[in-house]
Amino acid sequence: MRADEASGRAALVTGAAGGIGGAVAAALKTAGSTVTAHDRRQPTVAVDHVLVGDLHDGDPRDVVRAAEAAMGRVDVLVHCAGESDQTGFLELTDEQWDAVVKLNLSAAFPLCQQAARGMAERGDGAIVLIGSLCGRQAERGFAHYCAAKAGLEMLGRSIAVELGGRGVRCTTIVPGTIDTPLNDAVARDDQALSRMLARTPVGRIGSADEVADVAVWLAGAPAYVNGASIVVDGGYSIEATP
Q1: Mean pLDDT: which of 80-84, 145-149, 197-201 is highest?
Q2: Integer-rounded Cα radius of gyration of the chain
Q3: How many CA atoms lie within 13 A of 97 on its CB side?
Q4: Model pTM?
């Protein structure tokens, strides 16, 4: 997003206390947007407004309403909030399934719906969802997370189909392994890290800032960029494996 495009834009970022969410909020602020950061933990990123609350509780639409009250409107929604745990399919409990699907997918629907209503009325707006390669490639122990992220990407496409004609664009970022606290386990596992790096053409894991740069661009991309999914994985997913 160029500075002139970002000037005066009002952006809401969920999961803004996390690695990717915090980087996205900071990048949008640097680009000139007015930014409201939301998380269940206190976001530390320097933005204009901070909302603390758990998307598991209450109506996620209230988060958008609070951001609209603070900024006057929401022109850009970036949904970064997400969580998971590694549990084998036969051991996975209903509670684990519900918690992961709620935050990664179910909460996205009312968030996007509420933000899109205002955007559609004004004939302008951008929704950026943070998906995952797990939504495309099954990972052992992450059935709940894989299913939720697959659903999130399709939700984004559905929004793009229905609202593209009303000026609301929806796109999805599909990150690979990014250097954030959520991926500390990979970074500490030398064998897993070596396997991942060997398969990644650029030879390293990604940074949250690299994902944030794509989010900022998508937030202000040309109107014809709608329904797209941008993979940010250093080329990890494109090489065939035996």
Answers
A1: 145-149
A2: 17
A3: 9
A4: 0.92
